[in-house]
Amino acid sequence: MTDFDALPPCSILLLAGGQGQRMGGRDKGLIEWRGEPLIQHLQRLTRPLTDDLIISCNRNRERYARFADRLVQDDDSDFPGPYAGIRAALAVARHGFLLVMPCDSPLLDRDLLQGLRRTAAAHPGTPVMVRQGEQWEPLLCCIPTVHAPVFEDHWQRGQRSPRRTMAELGAVALQCDADDPRLANFNTPDLLIDIKPWSAG
Prior knowledge:
Blueprint (H helix, E strand, L loop, with lengths): L2 H4 L3 E7 L15 E2 L2 E2 H9 L6 E5 L3 H5 L4 E3 L9 H11 L4 E6 L7 H13 L5 E5 L2 E10 L3 H9 L5 H7 L3 E5 L12 H6 L7
Parallel strand pairs: 1-4, 1-6, 4-5, 7-9
Antiparallel strand pairs: 2-3, 6-8, 7-8
Helix pairs in contact: 4-6
């Protein structure tokens, strides 16, 4: 039995529903890096970890469908942000935890995801967020799905910050170094060129 097998099962959400403004409006998850769409790098990493892989997307649903067990989309067509995708996935997740990550971070690795899951298991009922140095990374998190009604209530009251909702729920940190290369975010065309693959070995 692997360490992953010993952890509670989780649903996984890949966030690909953004407007891609810094990418010139392109659908970020489908932009190629190293010969594959960004979403495919994350799908390959996460596929062995769950039987409930969810992608939040608002465009190109046919293309995303082959990478996921199911898709969710925002109620609002004006790209209201990642909170909408998290809220939608929490409402349909099959397992007790929802592991969340953005589609434009293809250098994430199993150790980091394992750390999020292990920390969540050690703090039952409490969300876990990555903290890079002193900066919280709310789109890299593990949320107990029991909090779906809280996210829905906050959404209805106008909340659009996942970090604020998780802070109110007493979120704990998975601490990473400020310069952790696994957390590189490919959110501009230049970064797709400049950031090189990272290997722990």
